[in-house]
Amino acid sequence: MNREEKELREELVTYGRRIFAKGLVVGPGGNLSARRGDYMLISPSGLSFDELTPQDYVKVSLHDGKVLSGGKPSSEFLMHWFVYRERQDVNVVVHVHPPFVLGVIGGGGSIQPLFPDFIAYLSRVALLDYITPCTEALARAVCRAVQSADAVLLLAHGLVTVGSTLKEAYYRAEIMEEAAKINAITRLFGSPRVLSDEECTAILHLDAERYRQELVKRGV
Question: In terms of DSSP bridges, do strands 151-154 and 125-128 run parallel, antiparallel, or are they unpaired?
Fold first, then answer.
């Protein structure tokens, strides 16, 4: 194992534990992967993020989907593989089960842009109807959705976010759950105050936001 792979495994453990600590998954739910060259490292099947070690992440070929080293990969590995083959700019795929996201979309609600970070990180979002988990049908549907989105809401299932770095994909998942919370709370008090197209455009053109985006894409 070279140094680059060793560091990537350690970084996956760090972000997996952040995902667990933030309550974006419970138990052995969710899965996480990162691409390097012609392979990906993906979380194993049946284990919780808070108990994984760097060695537990499974090395899978991006050419044919075969396991190169490690145990059994996540049951959703096909979804990760298809996404990497579809988008060469994506190096990380995060799949989580955020409770507020699931609650809002499961109740027929929508997650609207109510604060600047949503615009900066989640300007491209797709929603898929329920598809049986761990199937090729789901993998292909997510693959089609990420052609034009960086976050995919899965009805009665969860959320998929992608990014060029672990930090970017993780931030997108974390901010989506925060957005779902804010959307739910605003509905308790009345009608949400949604940011207008003009306000969204102004946010995206802020020098401060451009700087933050550059840092995130570099994983800083």
Answer: parallel
Structure tokens at 195: 């940011």
Domain span at 179: 3-217
User: Is residue 139 within a helix (H) or strand (E), and if so which, with residue range?
Assistant: helix 136-145
Q: What is the CATH number of the domain that holds 201?
A: 3.40.225.10
- Strand ranges (DSSP E) for the chain? 31-36, 39-42, 58-61, 67-69, 92-96, 125-128, 151-154, 158-163
- 136 tagged catalytic: no
CB 58 within 8 A of CB 81: no
Summarize pLDDT for 73-127 with one digit per residue, the tens: 999 999 999 999 999 999 999 999 999 999 999 999 999 999 999 998 998 899 9
Sign of CA dihedral 220, 125, 19, 78: negative
Alpha-carbon span 102 to 25, nearest angstrom = 11
- Residue of 201, 187, 207 lying closest to 119 (CA atoms): 201
Task: State the pTM of this model.
Answer: 0.93
Catalytic annotation, pick one of 11, 76, 174, 177: 76
Domain count, the chain: 1
